[in-house]
Design goal:
- The chain is mainly β.
- It folds into 2 domains: 226 residues, Jelly Rolls; 71 residues, Immunoglobulin-like (Sandwich).
- The protein contains 2 helices and 20 strands.
- The strands form 5 sheets. Strands 1, 2, 4, 6, 11 and 13 form a 6-stranded antiparallel β-sheet that branches. A 5-stranded antiparallel β-sheet has the order 3-5-12-7-8, with no helix packed on it.
- β16 and β17 form a beta hairpin.
- The longest helix has 12 residues.
- It is globular, with a radius of gyration of 21 Å.
- The relative contact order is 0.19.
Length: 327
């Protein structure tokens, strides 16, 4: 009996000493460079952006305001500045022109802007087929919680698994939908949405974030500045359900927005039925939702600047940047 108990205890405790992927460039690393040929596309549309506070432990702390939501779109830049910051517990939801599917190996990768191999700002990753039911990737953080990792403190990459932000800028953290094969509420061959949720690295249970095993995740905290929290650069697509290039060409060619820039009216034309049109500012706040294909921008309570127009057609969603020059 003692032998059996000992074996069981050793098995249960083995995860405490598990070593996961090392830093980018090291032998055995799973990091994927932004220029890798495995990527067939990049995030094309911001569905929702909810920035969090600079310091969640301080009541009334202002939200972060570094970058705008569209910085999460298109190919990873691999720089410290071409990003949008999420703040403590903030989140961003994106999608591609075609759904992600479960292929051989990783299916997509998330890029952060870490300037050092051990300065890791982490985030949970969730996916959804319908935009309502999201499933979070199982994650593990084996970092000690005896002492708080400081604002610019370091984390051992090999103690982190399935949390975005494991790698230095220019290198993506891969995610494999096979990890969610037993999940309910999603179709792992038809993933339309990816949500990134900042990990609050506080070891105070009142504020901190937990991994899938119930461990507090200890990462740099507090980060009480405008660019605090996870800084998303991009999300790269590896496996798409369909011909991504063909799908992109067909989708983008159906819609035309003009004039752009505009001082008053814009018109939307499409070869497919337009089901709905939404207008957002660069912070992700919705300004307008309409089915009308002619919009008087001058009648809205907005200032001159860049806005995001999301056009839902019978073939899918198209996003366009528009510039409004108020008279």
């Amino acid at each position: 009996m003692k032998i059996i108990v000992l074996i069981a205890l050793l098995g249960a405790g083995s995860s405490l000493f598990a070593q996961y992927s090392p830093a980018a460039g090291e032998d055995g690393s799973t990091a994927i460079h932004k220029d890798s040929s495995v990527f067939i596309g990049w995030a094309a549309d911001v569905v929702e952006f909810s920035p969090g506070p600079q310091d969640i432990s301080i009541p009334g702390s202002p939200n972060v305001y570094f970058g705008d939501a569209t910085e999460a779109l298109n190919k990873a830049e691999g720089t410290s500045t071409d990003v949008v910051s999420l703040g403590d517990g903030g989140s961003i939801t994106i999608r591609f022109h075609l759904p992600i599917m479960n292929g051989e190996g990783p299916d997509f990768a998330v890029f952060e802007n870490g300037f050092d191999e051990s300065f890791l700002e982490l985030a949970h990753v969730e996916v959804s087929s319908d935009g309502e039911n999201f499933v979070r990737f199982p994650s593990v953080s084996l970092t000690t919680t005896d002492e708080q990792t400081g604002t610019f403190g370091t984390t051992n990459t090999e103690l982190i698994h399935n949390l975005a932000g494991k790698f230095i800028q220019g290198y993506g953290t891969p995610f494999d939908l096979e990890d969610l094969v037993d999940s309910t509420g999603i179709d792992i061959d038809m993933i339309n949405y990816v949500r990134i949720v900042d990990v609050v690295g506080s070891i105070d249970p009142t504020y901190g974030s937990y991994d899938s095993e119930g461990n507090l995740i200890n990462d740099p905290f507090p980060t009480e500045f405008s660019s605090g929290g996870f800084d998303i650069d991009a999300v790269g697509l590896i496996h798409a359900n369909g011909d991504y290039t063909t799908g992109l060409d067909k989708l983008e060619s159906t819609v035309n927005v003009y004039p752009n820039p505009s001082q008053q009216f814009i018109k939307i034309s499409s070869t497919d039925e337009v089901k709905n049109i939404e207008l957002f500012d660069l912070n992700g706040r919705q300004i307008l939702s309409t089915k009308e294909t002619e919009i008087d921008l001058s009648s809205l309570s907005i200032t001159s600047g860049i806005y995001i127009l999301k056009i839902q057609t019978a073939k899918g969603m198209v996003s366009e940047k528009i510039t409004f020059n108020k008279l």
